[in-house]
User: Fold these one by one.
Assistant:
Number 1:
Amino acid sequence: MSNIAQYIEAAERDNTRRSYASAIRHFEIEWKGLLPSTADAIARYLADHAATLAINTLRQRLAALSRWHTDQGFADPTKSPLVRQVLKGIRSVHAVPEKRARPLELAMLQQVDQWLAAAIGNAQRSGDQPALLRHTRDRSLMLLGFWRGFRSDELVNLRVENTEITPGQGMACYLGRSKGDRQLQGRTFQCPALSRLCAVDAFSAWVSLAGLTEGPVFRKIDRWGHVADESLHANSLIPLLRSLFAEAGVESPEEYSSHSMRRGFAGWARASGWDIKELMEYVGWKDVKSAMRYLDASDSSLQARFEQGLPALAPTAQQPPPLVLLLTEPVGVLGLPAEGATLVAVLRVTMVLARFSKQSRGLARGHRLIEQTCFERFAMQRLNTEGTLYELAVPYLSREVLDETIATLLDDMYRIAEDNQCLLETSFHEPATDTYWD
């Protein structure tokens, strides 16, 4: 491999390359598609998998096909009006709520940790070295994954020589690259020492037991207790954790994944009074949307917030609440909107653009075009300096019309992003009704 090819490969995350390669294989080998392709063929490919693949998966497949055609010097068929219209129809017909891993709550973390501590003690007494190694490794992996909010790829990429422990204070973990580090600048993550459920103590115990001085921290262990030189694969963490949770007696272990630790920590930090800014800084989120995906509103706390305002009310007969509408036309009888009246939905939009690769040059242009062609006609207001959070005022005659308007906006935004060789993550939120579109 030439130096140029080596550096180009290093500029892109391994997960991205594998994901795009898998998408191309699926199109060529499993679906028997031909490359270069046509808009008609790609539309049929989308239609054939509309009922079995999530909309985000289909978008990822389109991004991979778009990238292939661009890299090979062919016209990109994924940007045709036909493909956009088919994707829009799929989103409408096959709309489903997003599946998320169940968060690992602190009480559950303690339950698993206690089981692991007992299992480690039993393995020591019986001289079962393979079991001792596995349980010690798993305990370190789980506690560090929770308290640092690490992703699976960050855990498996952690290296012994890039960690530094300060007794009684904590540890510092350096990662040269991670999903949130788009510029590949590297970052040091701090993890404090704790009086209970301490990730630092568990880490020290594992490294000392395995005799590790360099190389990957979390490694494979065979049935005879041999610690491998290579790290665990990121995809192996989900079955590992589910098996561990099942042994520890956790109910419905199949509902958990490696993201459960990250979501669990985010929920714990929120309940402990962390504000969103310090949580984003600690975990490494670059935008509010990424953070909010991990923060679930508690039904009980939501009820409590409503109930706080009720005791002050006088015990009068129940009256229907007044109907308050933001209108640009006169209202009709009984406060209902007159026929043909226009309502206005106040929407919060989160938007994150990233380059397909380091060679892509359209990031600033794509951002500017989305603002000019999609946002400015709706009284756009920027809510932060990074240009990732906006407020729009979208007029509509009915909810169906509003849905159609937002769907068109999403299609236009994704088209502009692809035209400028960018990846787009976006979501529309109407706080008044707590409705989301993405």
Number 2:
Amino acid sequence: MNETIRVAVVDDHPMFRDGVISSLRADANIQVVGQGASAADALHLAQEHLPDILLLDLTMPGGGLDAARAIAASCPVTKIVILTVSENEDDLLNAIKAGARAYILKGVAGNELARLVRAVYQGEAYIAPKLANRMLIEMTRAPRAENPLDQLTEREHQILELVASGATNREAGAHLHLAEKTVRHYMTNILQKLHVRSRVEAALLAQKAGLGDAR
């Protein structure tokens, strides 16, 4: 059985956004979990839903690039896909540097967009063919904060504190009224933010910071 890909779409043109959502929903393995029209909407959707893929326009209130940077820093588990009319090479390079995994031009057909979403979900990078001569796959990571725990959202702090107290994902979910799968998704995001490989390392880091008495 194919995994369901959870997608959010942010574009300030309602008719275009509706068309994108309709095209994606035609694919049985893609679930649209949210939509918005601004950089603030994009960041909220990313933090609230942690979608697998976030489709983001460049030209929107608040700026698509600023949204991409903020999302790459706060939600590294979410893969950012730029969907834009801009063929400007600087926009392309800035989008890659901001953390985008793909740069797609808005003339793409609906079934092709769904295919590209699946490809990005599986770990591929993509740049529109006509811009491929400027391809620069520069893996960008948010710079480490002096205290990596400062990068966590309030919800992530709650989950990490429970894990540091010895709670399983199921127990943490029950305590916070979240599904176990949702807690696992958050933990993946936490591990990436803290640059650690396991929940044990994350728990040790949290305990050193004085966390671990949540239960």
